[in-house]
Amino acid sequence: MFEFGKGKRPTEDQDMPQRETTAATRGETQPAAAAPARPAASGSGHAAVIGPSIRIEGDLKGEEDLVIEGEVHGTVNLRSNALTIGGKGQVKADVYAHTIRVEGTMEGDLYAAERAVITKSADVRGNITSPRVSLEDGARFRGSIEMDPESLQPVFGSQRGSGSSEKQAPAPVRTGGASASGGAGGAGSASATGTGKDTATG
Amino acid sequence: MRPATTGPDTEAGAPATVRSPLFMRVLGMLESRERPVVIDLGSATPELLARLGPMHARLEVIDLPRALEAWQEPPDAEQPGQHFIDWLLPPGPRPADAVLAWDLPNYMPLPVFGRLMREVARRCRRGALLHMLATYAHSRMPARPGRYVPEGYDALHCAPADAALIDAPRHSSEALDAALQGMHMERAVLLRSGLQEMLFEVE
Questions:
Q1: Which end of chain B is more exposed for a tag (fewer CB within 10 A), N or C?
Q2: CB of A68 within 8 A of CB of A50?
């Protein structure tokens, strides 16, 4: 389930409306380290998809794997799950996830508890903090790559690299409105769970 | 300071894998340090990242050629603006142990390169090492900076990014030493590729 923050950081999942999130299957492989003991579809090949026509501003938090093919501005917090910024994805956000794979455009800081993969089609401007970072030939990158596991301690605490689904107090706090606009589009259907205050037009 | 070996046995601009003792010395120094910090003025390569990963290093990728393209107003050739420097070299959490300049000094006027290196040196700890490759033996060089990656345990693979050749500035080690204030030349070695490998130490 994903949630969008509006005005304040979301605190507990039960505060979120129980709308169903559509899962979509992607042929590409998620990093293997994302697999065990995680709550959602990690390792099963299923992930929620934010389609190319969707634009989200605000905080995005969830407990299942996510593929972003649309546009996201704000904060993405998937501490126990895998995030893929697809080839059409444009993310301007600080991102916290168990594993992060970037194929599209990313501006902001990435914190990956287990692994960050920057593919050859990626264009990344920002700082990456992860114990394992791989970068494919041809990737555009400007920023810093911090591979010291200690650097993640303040961000992920003991959760780092464990694959645990245990909830941690999220670090990123952003204020300001959140909105999601657009419709499900592209190859995968996408839906998002929002609070009553969120706007969703399409 | 004179190059330590004899002349080149490859053509200007040809890809080559050459032994690079000074680059290996930099890697050796980094391995001896805890959580080392490396400033890479070139673009990020998987090979360097793979080498630095086990050291739990921090790699700061400046990608100077692309940064210069991305910068809206070209920096003043005589005195690049401080705001450009600040944008180019944001402060890091700890001082750098090594700076990799690759062949970039061949593509910048020496005063500009010297100014840039002064700013870089401010981001370094005392005793940090600056590694660079200057065209020395050939009068022509590729029109754009090349791609350099560590290969094996003692070599550097040099691949030109451009088949076109331009005149090489052939900076002497003395001229570079004079341009790089706040650093002194530690050693220079002429590589088989015709590049002169140089190591400076931050004072």
A1: C
A2: yes
d(CA A185, CA A189): 6
Say yes or no: A147 contacts chain B, CB-CB below 8 A: yes
Predicted confidence (pLDDT) per residue in B137-180, tens digit: 888 898 889 899 999 878 999 888 778 899 999 988 889 999 99
Best mutation target among B30, B39, B49 (most A Cβ atoms within 10 Å) is: B49
Fold of B16-202: Rossmann fold (3.40.50)
Best interface-test mutation with B: which of A117, A135, A152, A153 has the largest number of B CBs within 10 A?
Answer: A135
- Asked if B60 contacts B37 with a C-beta cutoff of 8 angstroms, the reply is yes
Contact at 8 Å (CB) between A99 and A182? no
**CA triplet A23, A25, A30: central angle to 5 degrees?**
110
Residue ranges per structural domain of chain B: 16-202
Q: Does residue A200 sit at the B interface (CB-CB below 8 Å)?
A: no
**ipTM above threshold 0.95:** no
- Whole-angstrom distance, CA of residue B17 vs CA of residue A72: 43
Residue B196's closest CA among B171, B175, B179, B178? Answer: B171
∠ CA(A83), CA(A89), CA(A93), 5° rounding?
A: 65
Taking residue B93's Cβ as centre, other Cβ atoms within 10 Å add up to 11
Residues B63, B88: Cα–Cα separation, whole Å: 9
Take residue B170 and report the two structure tokens written for it: 């052939």
